[in-house]
Each structure stands twice: as C-alpha cells, then as structure tokens.
Amino acid sequence: MSDDQELTGPAARTRRTLLAGAGAVGAAVVLAACGSDDSGDPAAPTSGGPAVPSTGDAGGGDREGAQSLARTADIPVGGGAVYPAQGVVITQPRAGEFKGFDSICTHQGCPVTNVDGGTINCTCHFSKFSIEDGSVKGGPATKPLPAKNVKVTGDQISLA
Q1: Residues with Cβ < 8 Å from 141, sequence gap 6 or more?
Q2: Comparing C-alpha atoms, which of 90, 80, 123 is closest to residue 105?
Q3: 26 φ/ψ sector (left φ>0, alpha ψ -120 to 50, else beta)
Q4: What is the DSSP string of 67-83?
Q5: How far from chain centre, in Å, is Cα 40?
Q6: Minimal CA–CA distance to 151: which of 100, 85, 81?
Q7: Is 11 in a helix, a strand, or coil?
Q8: Separation CA 137–CA 149 (nearest Å)
Q9: Cα 152 from Cα 128, distance rounded (Å)
Q10: What does the alpha-carbon distance between residue 117 and residue 53 come to, in Å, rounded to a whole number?
C-alpha cells in the first residue's frame, strides 16, 4: 500500500483505535509522572537527591532535637507567634508564662494569622482570642481556641 492511499473500512478503524490507545497510554504515563508518589515517609528523597534529616534547626543552631518550636526569646511578653506547620500558637501572657493553642479558628476553620494587641487573630472573619486562655474576645467565633500543651526546657519551647 502506498502513502497516497487512504485506509477505509475495518482497517482504518483498527489503525485509529491503535493510535488512540497509544495516545491514551502516553498521556497516562505523563500524568502519572506529575502525580504524587507519597510514601508517607517525610525523610524519603523526593527527587533523587539526598534525604533531609528531620532533626536540628534549619536556622543553623541546635534546638535540642526536631520537637523544639521556638526559643523563649522568640515569643514576646504580651504577645505570641503562630506556627501553622505545627498547628500551634504559642503565647506569653506574662513574663515566663507560655501557653499553647490550636492555630485553627473555631468559627469556620480558617488558620489564625497573627498575635497582636493581646489577642490571637483570625483575618478570615476577624475573630479574636485571648492570649491567656484562648477565650473569644471578638466574634463571630463563639468557641475558644483549644489549648495545646507546651513545655519549656531551658530556653526551648516544644509541644508536650
């Protein structure tokens, strides 16, 4: 058969089916390469590179293991800091007193974004929570932020 001849009938359908199937398989391979192959191991290499250890301090110092969230000096008296990756807000209502709270607003599940003016603030709908006990200081939230246990070891703060 020459290149000038056009296939018709069952032979044309078979060839089209074969080409369409090959295209679908190729597309599936490309899409699979873009997908997630999450093995559940956070230390597993993701791109053929070396695994990154989950201990130590990315800032360069040793914070006594991977559980340390902050140094006591990182949390201002009368204020606090939000650690969204760990799901916690750490506050220091009075000098040397550290509290932990869930970082998800009880109104509609938005993450709280900052600690300012003596309150933990959600900028989604402007709820405000006490840095002392997580109670609602301004709605629309009606339930307090749940407490999270934190411990202070030396100058390190971690989840208890």
Answers
A1: 105, 106, 107, 122, 125, 127, 129
A2: 123
A3: alpha
A4: TEEEEGGGS-TTEEEEE
A5: 14
A6: 100
A7: helix
A8: 21
A9: 26
A10: 37
Q: Which residue has the tokens 């998800």?
A: 104
pLDDT tens-digit map of 67-78: 788 899 999 999
- The three-class DSSP label of residue 135 is coil
Helices (H) and strands (E) in the chain, counts: 1, 11
Q: Distance between CA atoms of 39 and 35, rounded to whole angstroms?
A: 12
The closest of 144, 83, 97 to 119, measured between CA atoms, is: 144
Alpha-carbon distance 4 to 68, whole Å?
73
- Our CA dihedral for 32, 33, 36, 42, rounded to 10 degrees, sits at 150
Tokens 């000096």 -> residue: 73
Q: Are 78 and 118 within 8 A, CB to CB?
A: yes
pLDDT tier, 4 (very low <50, low <70, confident <90, very high otherwise): low
CA–CA distance, 45 with 22 (Å, rounded to integer):
32
Q: pTM for this one?
A: 0.58
- The closest alpha carbon to 86, from 36, 142, 150, 135, belongs to 150
